[in-house]
Known about the structure:
One of its GO terms (molecular function) is cysteine-type peptidase activity. This is Cell wall-associated hydrolase, NlpC family. By secondary structure, the protein is of the alpha+beta class. It has 2 domains: about 5-210, no CATH class; about 225-345, endopeptidase fold (from Nostoc punctiforme) (Alpha-Beta Complex). The chain has helices at about 5-15, 45-110, 125-130, 135-210, 215-220, 235-245, 265-275, 285, and strands spanning about 290-295, 305, 315-320, 320-325, 335, 340-345. It has a 6-stranded antiparallel β-sheet with strand order 1-6-2-3-4-5. The two termini are about 30 Å apart. Mean pLDDT is about 75; it is low at about 1-45 and about 115-120.
Amino acid sequence: MQSHPVRRVVSGALAAASVITLVTVAQPAATAAPVPVLQAPPTGSDALAKYRDLASQAEKLNEDLLKAQSDLDARQAELDKATTDVTAAKDQGVKAAEDQKKYQAEVDKFAGASFTSGVQLNKLSALLAGTSTQDFLDRSSALEIIATEKSGAMNDLTGAVRQAAEATTKATDAAKRAQDARDAAAKLTEDIKAKQKTLNDQIEQVKAADRNLTTADRAAQRDTGGKAPGLKAPTAAAQTAVNAALSKLGSAYVWGATGPSTFDCSGLLLWAYGKAGITLPRNSAAQARFGTPVPRDQLQPGDLVAYYSPVSHIGMYLGDGKMVHAPTTGDVVKISPLQSQYAGATRPTS
Length: 350
């Protein structure tokens, strides 16, 4: 069951996003350390080097925002589950209360019962009140049946009381989880608004730097890096993903884009592995934890290679020390050597 207050909060956050619609958690730009340039050292002008540095910082902010959105979605899912649990616990409590009332009536009936008027329900009274041995046996048998029924009624009552208490505890716990998720969602929404503003400010700096680029600078950014190594991936799924990524060489980088014609770094891998029937997480930090960790000396085509700590960029290994990736704004999907700030690799599996 969706929470209308949280939905309004989420909608407000998404309405504030002018560049991307998917967002994530990270440090504000004011406190973030400068992000190293993702491409090899520029051979063009100083203006291109400055542009790439600013664009790389913007890419990190974009990935941070994507992570924040994923976290917000997770909190919403927690809230939905907790709300459902509250309803289920309340329903269980109502039923347990009804059972308790019913079984209490049965126990009360036995508490004041007597086999015959004025005679207690026990075998001694049955012996004294009986007129024959058979009468005693009959009375004893009846008493055993009554005792069994009384014991069953007591057990039923005890069980109903226990279930009522458990339902109360579950309802209280679910209500707390719902409130915690609601509070976390509200805080994340405020973080998202702040991060969106920081990204927008960084984008303005990138745009200003773009105006200083020469024709040669712009041509350097459109370079796709030459031929792929052509090594075979270890699985059919990995090969499909590699082929899909390589088919997008030259496609423009766009913040928040997941294809089919423009991409950000994690969007390219999400799209490529989607063609192989494997759904990756949306942001680079989560993708860097997806699948099986792989040592650097055991990399194979199709592996995901991540950069920086915390992770803010990711590419797909091709073999021979090369990868395909979407570097940053102003650039295109290209083949590059594995770069500095290497943070690890994983091998996606279905």
